[in-house]
Amino acid sequence: MVAPSYLPADYRRKDSRMYTIQTDKGPKRGVKVMYRFGREDQYLGLMATTFTGAPAASPGQEVTVDDTTYTIVSYGGKVDHIWWERDGVLFWVSNTLSYLLDREEMLKVATGMVPVP
User: Fold this and answer.
1) Which value, in Å, is the radius of gyration of the alpha carbons in the chain?
2) Position 1 confidence tier, pLDDT thresholds 50, 70, 90
């Protein structure tokens, strides 16, 4: 698993959960960690799953940083989520419901992920 070494101002860890995704190739594990923005009902999410074919791995703009390719997925000109794959695990960070974070902030969160033993 990974954890953020950077969070935008006023984001705090709120909750996490583990789950199982049923796929054609059998069950795959997943985890979601949510970070709440202040007291608002806005959340930044960090997800990881061994289901590397998950719909989150959708087409977008690719950016390579330190030998990792990150795919930025946008809708209506706003960054929805950024995903990458490492060691057979698909990771992604998702923006808030109102897309509060811009491209640079989202990339800073994604590229700042560090391994957690």
Assistant:
1) 14
2) confident
Over the chain, what is the mean pLDDT?
94
**Contacts for 100-104 with beta carbons within 8 Å, 24 or more apart?**
100/37, 100/42, 101/8, 101/44, 103/72, 103/74, 103/79
Ranges assigned E (strand) in the chain? 2-4, 11-23, 26-37, 43-49, 61-65, 68-75, 78-86, 89-94, 113-115
CA–CA gap between residue 117 and residue 100 (Å, rounded):
31
| Residue 71: both structure tokens together | 């795919």
